[in-house]
Amino acid sequence: MKNMFKTLLAIFSSLVISTSAFAGELSVSGSAEATYIIGGTDDSNSKGLGVSNELNFTASGEFGNGYTWSYSMELDGASTANDDTQLVLGLADLGNAAICISECGLSTELSYGVGAYGVGSDVVNTGSIKFGSLDVSSYNNVQYHTPAGLLPFGITAKVGYVPNTAGAAGSSSKEGNTVENTTNADGVTTAAGIGTDASMYQITAAPIDGLTVGADYFRADGSTATSQQPEGGNYFAKYATGPFVIGYAKSLVSPGFSQTTGTAANQLYDTDAYGIQFAVNEDFTISYNNEKSQLTTNAGVEAGETTATKTRVETTVDTYQVAYNIGGATLALVKSEADNAGYTTNKEVSATLISLKMAF
User: Fold this and answer.
1) Which uninterrupted H or E stretch holds 6?
2) Which pTM value belongs to this model?
3) How many of the other CB atoms lie within 10 Å of CB of 246?
């Protein structure tokens, strides 16, 4: 993987030395969304009204040798920091190379693509399930993508490498890495100055008309977790025919951990998701998603005992969606219900979302 990183650096260097770039054009796109939500993960009786916005600044151009470049910077969420940035070099028959700052995700758990407004609980999170959470887009990374049409059956492959999981998002060449010891929710632990690295692989294919399949795998190495390095993967299948779309996805996530006596340690999140979507007409769409996620926990061996305790909790989330397009606007109604929400036994959570989204 480190050899791939060196190869990409060599490509970038050769482009700077041997070619000239033509000035590109800057454009702005995005959306504004007004929402009203009843319920959710915090309080099933809560009510919330808000307006969110997402802006994407893009630019593109080409080099004198026929290679191309594109740049994207997103402003979204509660902060206006430019932490979602990518620079992609189109290398013609050689594929694409990219430098990505908290961007260029390779996880495929949502690629099964069923949802009138969005994919499953990704729209309204009532279950707090861990569904394909490990992704290079959480870090600063470099990537290589094979060119389209190179492999049969529409196969494309992508590989990403994170040289330092503690790298500050959005940091420039004038900013050093001052991140202190950190441990994220997936158990990736990095001490400042050491730099745990990570790698990720993705492959997708379109073997027949209407069918798309794919898979990915993520692993972090060098973490201070002594018993299990963080790793996870997903695979999916999506089939579209006429007004129908059906899809299925499988996700396995094992956060990093260190086995210690008397504490919860080894965890495995095993999630299955499926859905069906129907377009009543070109403007009106309905859908249903079901997600089941089982958390298996192997506790550490208690003092005086010889075996560990194993527990299993399954969270189930059902999501119903209706969406209607009105010109450049989308009006949506989403209902989501979760049993054993957040892997807590007998906890039931529901949420209803009404959304009006304008694209520009």
Assistant:
1) helix 2-18
2) 0.82
3) 17
The candidate with the shortest Cα–Cα distance to 290, out of 253, 337, 331, is 337
17-37 per-position pLDDT tens digit: 444 555 567 888 888 889 998
Q: How far is CA 50 from CA 31, 38, 55, 255, 265, in A?
A: 14, 12, 17, 33, 39
Regarding beta strands 349-359 and 25-39, do their DSSP bridges make them parallel or antiparallel, or are they unpaired? Answer: antiparallel
Strands (E), the chain: 25-39, 47-62, 68-75, 84-90, 96-101, 140-145, 156-162, 182-183, 189-190, 197-205, 211-221, 231-241, 244-254, 264-279, 284-299, 310-326, 329-339, 349-359
Closest CA to 71 of 93, 55, 82, 87: 87
What lies within 8 Å, CB to CB, of 254 at 6+ separation is: 228, 230, 231, 232, 266, 267, 268, 269
Token output for 142: 């470099």
What does the block give as tokens for 28? 């702005």
The CATH T-level fold of domain 2-359 is Porin (2.40.160)
Residues written for the chain: 360
Return d(Cα 125, Cα 158) in angstroms, integer: 29
Answer whether residue 225 shows pLDDT above 60: no
Distance CA 339, CA 321 (A): 18
Burial of residue 139, with CB atoms counted within 10 A of its CB: 0-12 exposed, 13-18 middle, 19 or more buried? buried
What would the pLDDT profile of 62-85 be if each residue is shown by its tens digit? 887 789 999 998 876 655 555 688
